[in-house]
Specification:
homodimer; 453 residues; alpha/beta; Rossmann fold; four-stranded parallel β-sheet; 15 strands
């Protein structure tokens, strides 16, 4: 009988998150205040985040202790197993060993609670009573709803309207966890009302929903805003994935040749890969690859530039790969990962050639996802299908090169509430889509004249 | 930091299933042939099951080896963790320690693959190419779809029509795994056509769907029928749950005072409890409790009698607690566990006072489920909510008695594709419902004149 999983006992859970900012070969560019063009200070962020999270955002300490109260909640489902995909390997018939970190068995079904729980905790101890946030497909909104409930905070989620309507189960999930879920654009905020005045039928976008959530947080006493990806402290919290994976691979004496994750805002990809980027900075030979959709090709086609995180320009200017803050991916795109920007940390690592990116067509991603489900059983989230497509691609390359490879990837979430997208794929309703050059050029006009990093 | 989980490594997975028939203090009554009233022999079952499963059905061997090919698939997600529900305990504020066996993290989201995989395997090695089955809420149909795909078998699932319409994601899940899902009653079978002729708008029932699946299997060459609960071999396969739990509790030196599961056809309840029933037969002081809905109170209100497993009377007469084979639970009932009968093994154990049963109102079960989700995170399937209601009840009793208790229960499945039922509960659309005496009397007329056990 061959071993399929490497486990960690509760007491083996990592007690610290890893902060890549301590090890970067070149320093990150600071976020800029849009009015002054000067680096933003902690006081600029104070209206929307509690000071303890702002400190994490700018910290250069290498290791940051995970609070006991956070560990207690993590232990409900963490450490997650490191699994060997033997059945999928057989199907690919390539010289690869495939290991995946199973993040789909959290209560919310994805890696998102890894940061939702500490964010709720830090807000709680800072005296905050309520969090506002946005969500696209719903993974983040449901994770934060659960975390807020666990720490007794109120929670309001602005959900991109088209997803709100297509994925009613996500809204219901948030309700089960006691949160309020509002389709965005809404009439509750000025940002929402402005969009609705111009486009009453707007399907919404993450950029709009972020604007609404920030405005909502600022408007209420003892309320703050919470973001599920992009920011440094989010990447920090997610490193527990890669830290666990390193312990697990060490147990079986294996080191990966390639580490992969899908990349939307960058958090699950950073989560599995940052501890390996550290190894790479220290000379280890490891390839680190982010997989994104050709319909929202932020890393592969967007420039590294200063841009806003949201449509209404309420965030600081962030140094990141971007398709422009008013970009809304074509409705044709069913696979998630629709954010116009990318985490500054991930963008920085791409610029420093420590990380690379590849883009995949949605048909290929769902094909890979169905192959996975039919061999390994678990049905991956559409987002996760992107990294599985990248694994298939990497296995093909290994076969062509005649080279044995160990692949590690982050199985970021399950697709139990995204089955309508699979149905569209299986019934031939999806078409391949690649963002055309002229659309990219048009989208990028939004950042013309912004400071250059 | 307090431990929350007890794990088993892959190599610690049990290699044999436990067969309670070897240890029963009184022998089970045989199933009867409806035409002759005589016990059915293996040859009577051969049209619908392969001989290797029929042998398991009637075996009195105590331990039955789990084939290597089955273990390989089990290891994708098994052994499952034994978890301590510390957050839920805090909420209950009663002198109880609550452990649960997490069966919701299988690829299909429930305990059902524990028997779907061996059933597909045994059919495969018997030369069968295709399986037909029925499903109610969809847990079983999706599990068998996955298992058939893993072993290269075709699969057709007759799904109770009202669930087919209310739970489209379950049908899609089956499609992802390559199976065909048909709303029942259908025009594909005589059984279905007969129902439709009389009740064109029939919402369907498990009894009807079983009739259709059996007829479909018999009509096709190299096809057999597969059942997800009730039968002895299904209970056998599910014992892996309880066997793992015993190993895990032994690791921490704890023995449960109470073992609980929800009971529809009986398979998840039997799965966790049969190894403990064995202990009880050998003198151990342990209480074993099945939880069922007041709207389908098979064990608490139905007599122990001979009855058919399906509406069209295609099965043998089974000795079991039953509400009559033509009973269809009120549409008002949202919580699953709608089968009219109960596994003969479970029924037998109730008659021998080794196992007891309690019934819960649906409002109480969803209330318990929401309490669970808001403290422990995971959203339980409506079926699982029944056992959680029983745990709440047991904790209350412990508090009243001032007695410390260790509770072990089977967390049989997650509710990610059953969120519409939660939504109905949260928006006040569910009402309490208890099957009235006169309805029970009417339902039981279906078994008048049948042989008595």
């Amino acid at each position: 009988m061959k071993t399929m999983k490497v486990l960690l006992e509760d007491h083996e859970i990592p007690r610290q998150w890893y902060n890549i900012q301590a090890d970067l070969p070149t320093p990150m560019r600071p976020p800029l205040h849009p009015a002054t063009g000067k680096p933003v200070g902690p006081e600029d962020l104070a209206p929307i985040f509690p000071m303890n999270l702002i400190e994490q955002e700018v910290s250069t300490e290498r290791w940051i202790d995970i609070p006991e109260e956070v560990l207690e909640k993590y232990l409900i489902w963490r450490p997650t197993p490191l699994c060997r995909a033997r059945n999928f390997e057989k199907l690919l018939n390539a010289p690869v060993k495939i290991y995946y970190k199973m993040e789909g068995n959290s209560p919310a079904g994805s890696h998102k609670p890894n940061t939702a729980i500490p964010q709720a905790y830090y807000n709680k101890i800072a005296g905050i009573k309520h969090l506002s946030t946005e969500t696209g497909a719903g993974q983040w909104g449901s994770a934060l709803s659960m975390a807020c409930q666990m720490f007794g905070l109120g929670c309001r989620v602005f959900m991109v309207k088209v997803s709100y309507e297509q994925k009613p189960y996500r809204r219901m999930m948030m309700n089960v966890w006691g949160a309020e879920c509002i389709p965005s654009p809404s009439n509750l905020t000025e940002a929402g009302r402005n969009v609705l005045a111009e486009h009453p039928d707007s399907p919404g976008s993450l950029g709009i929903a972020i604007s609404e959530a920030i405005e909502d947080a600022i408007a209420h006493p003892q309320a703050k805003y919470s973001l599920g990806s992009v920011l440094n402290h989010v990447m920090l919290h997610q490193t527990i994935i890669g830290l666990e994976a390193q312990k697990q691979m060490a147990k079986i004496g294996v080191y990966p040749d390639v580490v992969m994750g899908c990349a939307g805002g960058g958090s699950n990809f950073a989560g599995i890969s940052l501890p390996y980027v550290r190894d790479k900075i220290h000379g280890k030979d490891v390839k680190i690859v982010g997989a994104e959709p050709t319909s929202c090709p932020t890393l592969t086609r967007g420039p590294f530039a200063y841009d806003f995180g949201d449509l209404a320009k309420k965030t600081p200017l962030l140094p990141m790969h971007t398709l422009g803050h008013d970009y809304v991916p074509a409705p044709i795109h069913a696979g998630g990962l629709r954010y116009h920007g990318m985490a500054p940390i991930v963008s920085h690592l791409v610029m420093d050639n420590l990380v690379e990116a590849r883009a995949y067509h949605q048909i290929d991603t769902f094909e890979a996802g169905v192959m996975w489900a039919r061999s390994e059983g678990f049905i991956p989230a559409p987002e996760t299908c992107h990294v599985i497509a990248a694994v298939v691609d990497e296995a093909r390359r290994a076969k062509e090169e005649g080279k044995e490879k160990v692949i590690l990837f982050n199985w970021s979430g399950h697709g139990m509430v995204d089955l309508a997208s699979y149905d569209a794929y299986l019934t031939g309703k999806l078409i391949p889509y690649e963002m055309p050059d002229e659309e990219i050029a048009r989208a990028l006009r939004a950042i013309e004249g912004f400071p250059k990093p």
